[in-house]
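Q: Hi! First time doing this. I have a protein sequence and I read that you can turn it into a structure. Is that right? Here it is:
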Amino acid sequence: MTASFLTALPVYNEEKYVRDVLQEVRKYSKEILVVNDGSQDGTADVLAEFPEVRVVHHEQNRGYGAALASAFEYAQRENFEVLVTIDCDGQHQPCRIPRFVEACERADIVSGSRYLKQYADDSLPPADRRQINRRITEDLNRRLGLHLTDAFCGFKAYRVATLSQLHITEFGYAMPLQVWAQAARAGLRIVELPVPLIYLDESRSFGGALDDAWTRLQHYREVLDRSLQALEEGADGVSCPPESSRGACSQ
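A: Yes, that's right. Below is the predicted 3D structure, encoded as structure tokens:
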């Protein structure tokens, strides 16, 4: 594993988890970036305990997709070869980071899948989340000719040289759908790696109306529709309205 890589964590009000997660991540990644997306809790104070960690601050909460877009830009600007993204809520195991980096030797995007393999200690996913993930994954595969098993896993690795072909304008949790549309259209090589299914906080909010499962499903379908339409029209995508919060444009 010789590629220079950066591990990036999008963070929003993760005071509860960020210390333990960073302590574990730095065992497997020398270079770490945290995108602090307008946290209002004690997240910034905890980050100050890790002077070796690079931090990009969003003054206001802009959304999960916006945080990852900042990580994409940073990795390109700093000339890393691979960018690993991992969530900061304890649902991903940092010990798997080297496997994702290694898999990037044969792929442009390596995506974790919680449904590719069963592990003995897997959590039982909330029924609405599993159903929505399954439906959206099926839509992606049918419309884009992909073979995914998990549309929304945040544990990924990207070959940085190909990030210039991804133009993120969906700033909420639906951002992966725009990534899949653009990656498929660009012919990027995609592989999945199995990861355990871990839920530590099933009560987490998607934000506002999107806590309703039907509303969330419809939002995802709308994002996929307009991402594909934008590609057909030669555009990069459609931005969320400036007044949208993380929840209003979220997964």
